[in-house]
TrEMBL record:
<keyword id="KW-0233">DNA recombination</keyword>
<keyword id="KW-0229">DNA integration</keyword>
<dbReference type="Pfam" id="PF00589">
    <property type="entry name" value="Phage_integrase"/>
</dbReference>
<dbReference type="GO" id="GO:0003677">
    <property type="term" value="F:DNA binding"/>
</dbReference>
<feature type="domain" description="Tyr recombinase">
    <location>
        <begin position="2"/>
        <end position="182"/>
    </location>
</feature>
<protein>
    <submittedName>
        <fullName>Site-specific integrase</fullName>
    </submittedName>
</protein>
<dbReference type="InterPro" id="IPR011010">
    <property type="entry name" value="DNA_brk_join_enz"/>
</dbReference>
<dbReference type="InterPro" id="IPR013762">
    <property type="entry name" value="Integrase-like_cat_sf"/>
</dbReference>
<dbReference type="GO" id="GO:0006310">
    <property type="term" value="P:DNA recombination"/>
</dbReference>
<dbReference type="InterPro" id="IPR050090">
    <property type="entry name" value="Tyrosine_recombinase_XerCD"/>
</dbReference>
<dbReference type="InterPro" id="IPR002104">
    <property type="entry name" value="Integrase_catalytic"/>
</dbReference>
<dbReference type="GO" id="GO:0015074">
    <property type="term" value="P:DNA integration"/>
</dbReference>
Amino acid sequence: MAEVDAIKDQDTIRLIGHLLERRFSKQVSDVWCIGLNLALRISDLLAIRFHDIHQDRLFLREAKTGKTANIQINPKTLQLIERIKQEHPNHEYLFQSHRNRQAINRAARPISRRYVTRAFAEVGQELNLKLGTHSMRKTRGYHLYQATKDIGRVMKMLRHSSEGVTLRYIGITQEDVDKDFVELEL
């Protein structure tokens, strides 16, 4: 799997969402926007069912780690989720595949990870970025760290067990640490 980056610029974050909608679909753009706000791995994000959401909280068991995620959903994300629910009141999954409509007797399924991965990669290539599905999680972690400088909070949000792993994950390099030492004079 290719290494992907956190997106550090707010304008680029918005541009990615716009391009995903224009080049692929509103649904893929919603994956980007909601994924940025929930900081889940793509397999967990695509597996969200509407019944996993209780008022302003999301409860799920992470597939990779088995850890329980109990996430408070911010108002922007709640609005997106509510719009999706209103547009597709019979859907079971937040990001349900529309191809299932063609197979009447088939169980509902979310859109495929492969489709989302391809969409992100193509937009990333267009913008000359290492963009992938993990970019959403990394971006959320990076921006929380920049806002708080509290690696413990970022670790807890990403459900990591090591500071070093978290710092590498969100793209904090020795160069960034050096810059902090130079810019912060006491």
